[in-house]
């Protein structure tokens, strides 16, 4: 038995499933988690001293690679001055200013501790601002685990959502309407049905929680148009895309300006940070200036801010890092796509440094088409990759994240291992 397996055996006695977030479980690939001991650059090392080229990057935050020296030093320095004050600090102002100066859609911003909190708060503000109760989300988009957002399919786009989790009351989700990603008609018909009741539309501008599904041409523009026309707030959930596609995230990349943006993941540099911001007119409703209550004992924590701001400054000051990240990722995913074409039973979706290999022969444009993937073959693929030193998400419906420190050799090695798998495992067509 490996050390990872021993630790896992103990873990399940004390932690549900042995993990503190379900995406870390290896159940869907029929295996047990590799317990990670440390990480550096593009590598993860487990408790058995196995080394992996990492394509999770802590689910996005580690865009500069693991254990970046500058970020670490900033954390050490901040920690030496005290871990938390529960009082206002200068570094929070610097963080807010840095973001507001560079992201036109963000005029004011509030720090929280996770993406879940950011989204939950942004929706509360959108409801406070519009005085309306209903929200529209897209099937297959993930916006954290708050009650009202744990709704995926419901029974068709025209009905109110069914809770996706035990413990979520029907009351909590009755105002959550679901539409189909990349399908503007499904959104328009909800607006037509409830023209004066919809507070906001929330969307992942690039869906990355059903595997990666980029927006079709005109989709985000169409959402902007519909929200403006029906006086609803457009929220881009940029917890993954923020500071990832380019410094300005999806709103800059696609040139569409939402009313509110939520952040997480990269914004904290690996520490627990989330944020929501947007139009001043809307953000002014947040307590203590306005009537929408939202608070946090550890929000804007000085150590977390030190990590976040150091990472964001590096990213802001080096646009060329994005250019080379996007170029090498493009080549990498193209090569993967060529393998997929030869195979005939898989697809690659990608944009910038985000991508997914789906084991299906049909194009993936939304949740329904993503779901047609052969998850058993994904499980064999993922285990094969792990056994050959490549760490992928242990589930089909997650993104691959390439970082700025992945080298050409590491990317090529990954392609070689993927090719070996695809040649040796033809799936059960
Ligand atoms: C990860 C994620 C969240 C939730 O963030 P947490 O920090 O895990 O709470 C919300 N929205 C999107 C798009 C995400 O990918």
Account of the protein in words:
This protein is α/β, with parallel strands linked by helices and 429 residues long. It contains 14 helices and 14 strands. The strands form 3 sheets. A 7-stranded mixed beta sheet has the order 4-10-9-8-7-5-6, sandwiched between helices. A 4-stranded mixed beta sheet has the order 1-2-3-13. α2 (69-80) packs antiparallel against α10 (302-317) and α3 (90-102) packs parallel to α10 (302-317). The protein starts with a helix and ends in a 5-residue tail after the last helix. Residues 153-159 have low confidence and may be disordered. The structure holds pyridoxal-5'-phosphate. Pyridoxal-5'-phosphate is lined by residues 114-116, 119, 142-144, 204, 209, 237, 239-240, 264, 274.
**Fraction of helical residues:** 25-40%
Poorly predicted regions: 153-159
Tell me the total number of β-strands: 14
Straight-line distance between termini: 35 Å
Main β-sheet description: 7 strands, mixed
Oligomeric nature of the chains: single chain
Outline type: globular
Rg to the nearest angstrom? Answer: 21 Å
Query: Could you tell me the strand content as a percent range?
Result: 5-15%
Count of alpha/pi helices: 14
Q: Compute the average pLDDT.
A: 95
What is the succession of H and E elements?
HEEEHHEHEHEHEHEHEEHHHEEHHEEH
Q: Supply the helix-strand structural class.
A: alpha/beta
Strand order of the largest sheet: 4-10-9-8-7-5-6
Bound molecules: pyridoxal-5'-phosphate
């Amino acid at each position: 038995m490996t050390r990872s397996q021993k630790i896992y055996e103990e873990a399940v006695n004390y932690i549900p499933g042995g993990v503190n977030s379900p995406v870390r479980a290896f159940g869907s690939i029929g295996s047990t988690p590799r317990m990670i001991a440390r990480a550096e650059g593009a590598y993860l090392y487990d408790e058995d001293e196995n080394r992996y080229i990492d394509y999770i990057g802590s689910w996005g935050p580690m865009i500069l690679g693991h254990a970046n020296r500058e970020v670490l030093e900033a954390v050490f320095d901040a920690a030496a001055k005290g871990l938390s004050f529960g009082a206002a600090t200068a570094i929070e102002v610097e963080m807010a200013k840095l973001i507001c100066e560079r992201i036109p859609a963000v005029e004011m911003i509030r720090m929280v501790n996770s993406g879940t909190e950011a989204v939950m708060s942004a929706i509360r503000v959108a409801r406070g601002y519009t005085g309306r109760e209903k929200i529209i989300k897209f099937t297959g988009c993930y916006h954290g685990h708050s009650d009202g957002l744990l709704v995926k399919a419901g029974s068709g786009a025209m009905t109110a959502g069914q809770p996706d989790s035990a413990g979520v009351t029907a009351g909590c989700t009755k105002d959550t309407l679901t539409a189909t990603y990349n399908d503007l008609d499904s959104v328009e018909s909800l607006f037509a049905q409830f023209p004066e009741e919809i507070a906001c539309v929330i969307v992942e501008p690039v869906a990355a929680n059903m595997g990666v599904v980029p927006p079709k041409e005109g989709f985000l523009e169409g959402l902007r148009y519909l929200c403006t026309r029906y006086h609803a707030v457009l929220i881009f959930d940029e917890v993954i895309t923020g500071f990832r596609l380019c410094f300005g995230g999806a709103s800059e990349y696609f040139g569409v300006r939402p009313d509110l943006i939520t952040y997480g993941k990269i914004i904290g540099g690996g520490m627990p940070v989330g944020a929501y911001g947007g139009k001043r007119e809307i953000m002014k409703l947040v307590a203590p200036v306005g009537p929408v209550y939202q608070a946090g004992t550890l929000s804007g924590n000085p150590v977390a801010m030190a990590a976040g701001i150091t990472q964001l400054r590096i990213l802001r000051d080096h646009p060329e890092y994005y250019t080379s990240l996007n170029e090498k990722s493009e080549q990498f995913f193209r090569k993967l796509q060529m393998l997929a074409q030869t195979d005939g039973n898989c697809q690659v979706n990608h944009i910038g440094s985000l991508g997914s290999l789906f084991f299906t022969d049909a194009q993936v444009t939304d949740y329904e088409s993503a779901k047609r993937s052969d998850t058993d073959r994904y499980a064999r693929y993922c285990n094969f990759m792990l056994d050959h030193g490549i760490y992928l998400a242990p589930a089909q419906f997650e993104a691959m994240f390439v970082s700025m420190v992945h080298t050409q050799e590491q990317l090529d090695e990954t392609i070689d291992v993927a090719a070996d798998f695809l040649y040796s495992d033809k799936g059960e067509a």
